[in-house]
Amino acid sequence: MSDIDAGGRAPRRDATANREALLAAAADALGEASDAPLERITSAAGLTRRAFYGHFANRDALVLAVIDVGAERLNAVAAATDHPHAPTAIALLGARLWGAVEHVRLLAGMAVREPYAAHAAEALQPVRERLRVLVERGVAEGTVRPDIRSATLARLIEASAIAVLIDAAETGIGDDEGRHLVMLAVLGTAGLSWQGSAELIAATPELAPDGEGRA
Fold first, then answer.
1. Separation between Cα atoms, residue 115 and residue 113, nearest integer Å
2. Model pTM above 0.70
3. Which string of DSSP letters, residue by residue, matches 89-137?
4. pLDDT confidence of residue 205
């Protein structure tokens, strides 16, 4: 059978394309407003509610799928991020995650919103583990504050980054400013002074807006 229905109607998108359209529309809508209604998402995807239910049982199932897609990308970014100097690696991780902005702002919001917080936390566990390893390395080499347990410090660094990301989504902070604030926040939490953080960012090519920080 032709991919054009009898009667000359336009070709139908296949199931994979429809699902991807729903995921993309949901990521955009939820990134702007975590309570975006299903009608807005299906309309943006160019699909009907009936078509939606051919892919997802309900809105929550769609949100969980969007979280998983975003987390997969962020986990890959984290796995590929490193630098011999631990604070630089931590700042670079923040910068590269910011570069995945369409996913990270959504996931930042979901990380603190029920009923999705637990799922988001589990999906992003590889990112958290990577950050913990970088913190432990920094403590061992004397470049990250040693007065807080590494696991706790890693969570505090994560929380400081999430706070910036949520604020950026709510206030419309520009891309370069938000990226810079994320790096300042994580470095300050890791134990660097505000002067030291600014100097490190300014002196490190990888942390420049046009450096390797872009994901």
1. 6
2. yes
3. HHHHHHHHHHHTHHHHHHHHHHTTSTTTHHHHHHHTHHHHHHHHHHHHH
4. 94
